[in-house]
Amino acid sequence: MNINDLVQGYTSGRVAEADMAAWLEEVYRHGLSFTETLEMTQAMVDSGKTVDLTDLGPYTADKHSTGGVGDKTTLIVAPLAAACGLKFAKMSGRRLGHTGGTLDKLESIPGFKISLSPNRFAAQVERVGAAIVGQTAKLAPADKKIYDLRDRTGTIASIPLIASSVMSKKIAAGAKNIVLDIKTGRGAFMKQFDDARELAETCVNIGKAFDRNIAALITGMDRPLGRAVGTALETAEAIDVLRGGGPSDTKELSLELTASLIRLSGLAKTERQALSLAESRVADGEALTIFNRMIEAQGAEPGITEPGAIPLPDESASVKAAKAGMITAMDTEEIGWALKDVAGAIFEKKTGDRVVAGEVLFRTYGDPGETAADRVAKAITIGPGPVSPTPLIIAYL
Ligand code: URA
After folding, report:
1. Is the Cβ atom of 44 under 6 angstroms away from ligand 1?
2. pLDDT grade, residue 306 (50/70/90)?
3. Looking at the structure, do residues 117 and 193 belong to the same domain, yes or no?
């Protein structure tokens, strides 16, 4: 049976779960050739509907991150890309494991609706320049069913399966220009750089085979991105960046991802020009204006991005350094798990920062039992240093 028959057969119930599981285990152990990986991607695209954005022209754009802790860049890249002339059309997911999900963050904006019909989605992208909605079950339904089986059979961590899963959804969602943020390090699913690079290369090659303009950044996830981790706190931090403030790492990564989309689409000739276009659209307030239009088009009240308007959780604990030194490591995955069921945390210090005894390391929010605070504190190592933290952007593909 070829890959397409297997995938369509399993999705419709004609192929037994045990047979699909056996095939997944085989792939998990021995991999797939690139041709087979393409067949797998095509089969999952063909299993459902696709969004046709061709009427919107050549500047449609999408972004995908493999998942991190504190990564709120989609909230910034969407309106910023639109402010630079792109049409940003993204279907996002919910949190996966220890990593946060864009939809959960957007839902911290009162009134925001994550579901739009495909027609309203495309119309909003055309009119406002950006829309972020929940992934519809009609796109690549085979991926959903197969992902669920991979989860139950311990076959998630396979590069061809991850690449075809991610890219089938990107291809079905229709954008011409795609930037990928492949995370690596302690808070990423790909702990090793070599695995992240192989995944990035595979995804980029799939995108090219489907005639997309595509680039990937491999970025460090050895510490949370920005200072805020947690839905409403991250949304507020993203708005700070759109106002021209916010933490420098979050701002830099958002600008670089947007600049990649600008370059891919041909709206700027050089990386330098693309970056400077993106910087000026933050500085002149256009990115924030489009963010407001985007969220208002999806149900938010006008004025909700004014300082203090988004309801934020109450601070529950403030954890101080027990000794002086340098933060030499943050177990970022453990931090993600520890904060999973609470409102979040704001980090005053991160890996590479010097601390004096008694200085505040982080504050937690909405954790009455203080268990999250204890777990996060244990995940932070203070030593004599020095330490050189992993760079924010490790490679461009
Ligand atoms: N995210 C996806 O969409 N698919 C995978 O296989 C893994 C992470």
Report:
1. no
2. very high
3. yes
The answer to whether residues 234 and 319 belong to one domain is no
In a domain, 180, yes or no: yes
Average pLDDT, the chain: 95
Q: Look up the CATH number of the domain holding residue 355.
A: 3.90.1170.30
SS3 65: strand
What pLDDT does 89 receive?
96
367 assigned to some structural domain: yes
Whether 100 has a pLDDT exceeding 90, the answer reads no
The atom number, within ligand 1, closest to the CA of 156 reads 6
| 25, part of any domain | no
Shared domain for 324 and 293, answered yes or no, is: no
Q: What is the pLDDT of residue 137?
A: 85
What's 267's domain CATH number? 3.40.1030.10
Residues 332 and 233 in one domain: no
Compute CA distances 318 → 83, 127, 246, 326, 365, whole Å.
38, 44, 21, 19, 9
Q: Which residues pair with 218 in a beta bridge?
A: 182, 395
Q: Are residues 285 and 222 in the same domain?
A: yes
Q: Is the CB of 162 under 6 A from ligand 1?
A: yes
The answer to whether the beta carbons of residues 27 and 158 sit under 8 Å apart is: yes
Q: Whose CA is nearest to atom 8 of ligand 1?
A: 162
pLDDT tens track for 260-281: 999 999 999 999 999 999 999 9
Distance of CA 31 from the midpoint of ligand 1 (Å): 16
Same domain, 336 and 251: no
Are 234 and 341 in the same domain?
no
Q: What does the DSSP assignment read for 285-337?
A: SHHHHHHHHHHHHTTPPTTTTSTT-S--PPEEEEEE-SS-EEEEEE-HHHHHH
| pLDDT for 25 beyond 80 | yes
pLDDT tier for residue 367 given thresholds of 50, 70 and 90 = confident
Q: What is the pTM of this model?
A: 0.96
Domain count within the chain: 2
Quick check: is 277 in a domain?
Answer: yes
